[in-house]
Amino acid sequence: MAKKILVIEDDRDIRESVTYMLESDGYEVTASDNSRILRSLPDIAPDLILLDNWLTDWASDASGQQISKELKSDPKTSHIPIIILSAVNNVAEIAEAGLADAYIKKPFDVDELLALVKKYISEAPPAP
């Protein structure tokens, strides 16, 4: 059974490229341009989340960092590895403050992204 990845990225080109890369590598991908998809998180049951740090739809101005911190602080979702995607220079600090498992800076190398995904999917503990 294919591992499931949730991609939340508001830039359509990046979202479609990442989805294509991951599906080509054998993953089942659910992609969204906004964070409202998180309402369906129990139904999606992802093995990993790729989360853009700057989501323009978030009404409360929450960032990927804040969303990651909320997910990592919730016992129901804390086991899901989260990789933050961002073009900002301080993405390492953003990921750390958001309790994310990893980060990747845009623009990113395809092989680097796939290696990071593979690492965190293979290390992911089972859902509680």
From TrEMBL:
<feature type="modified residue" description="4-aspartylphosphate">
    <location>
        <position position="52"/>
    </location>
</feature>
<dbReference type="InterPro" id="IPR050595">
    <property type="entry name" value="Bact_response_regulator"/>
</dbReference>
<dbReference type="Pfam" id="PF00072">
    <property type="entry name" value="Response_reg"/>
</dbReference>
<dbReference type="GO" id="GO:0000160">
    <property type="term" value="P:phosphorelay signal transduction system"/>
</dbReference>
<feature type="domain" description="Response regulatory">
    <location>
        <begin position="4"/>
        <end position="121"/>
    </location>
</feature>
<protein>
    <submittedName>
        <fullName>Response regulator</fullName>
    </submittedName>
</protein>
<keyword id="KW-0597">Phosphoprotein</keyword>
<dbReference type="InterPro" id="IPR011006">
    <property type="entry name" value="CheY-like_superfamily"/>
</dbReference>
<dbReference type="InterPro" id="IPR001789">
    <property type="entry name" value="Sig_transdc_resp-reg_receiver"/>
</dbReference>
